[in-house]
Amino acid sequence: MAVIRDYMNGPCRIIVRDDSIRPPEEVKKIIDRVSEIVINEDFRRYMEQKQKAQSQKEDSESADAEQDVTSVPKV
Q1: What is the Cα–Cα distance from 35 to 38, expressed in whole angstroms?
Q2: 58 vs 64: CA distance, rounded Å
Q3: What pTM, to 2 d.p., does this model score?
Q4: How far is Cα 54 from Cα 12, in angstroms, rounded to an integer?
Q5: For residues 16-41, b (16+ Cβ closer than 10 Å) or e, as one string?
Q6: How many angstroms separate the CA atoms of 39 and 53, rounded?
């Protein structure tokens, strides 16, 4: 485990060792996995927002329907 590069950033010391370098095939797998996680999370958020909007729409429609029923004059 050899040191490839040694950086100082203010009080922080950053040491890059040769075992932290990954082959291109492994990097591709890592990127694919991270991309999959991000896409799934974005889709989950999208569906959550869509369901929230749908429930708000249904709530407002039911409230409007209740107002229509109560505003009918009695004979």
Answers
A1: 5
A2: 10
A3: 0.52
A4: 49
A5: eeeeeeeeeeeeeeeeeeeeeeeeee
A6: 21
3-state secondary structure of 20: helix
**Which residue is associated with the tokens 């095939």?**
25
- Token pair in block for residue 63: 């409230």
Q: How far apart are CA 33 and CA 50, in angstroms?
A: 26
Structure tokens at 39: 């896409």
Judged by DSSP in three states, 52 sits in helix
**Which ranges in 1-75 belong to alpha helices (H)?**
24-70
For residue range 25-70, list pLDDT tens digits in order. Answer: 999 999 999 999 999 999 999 999 999 999 888 887 776 666 655 5
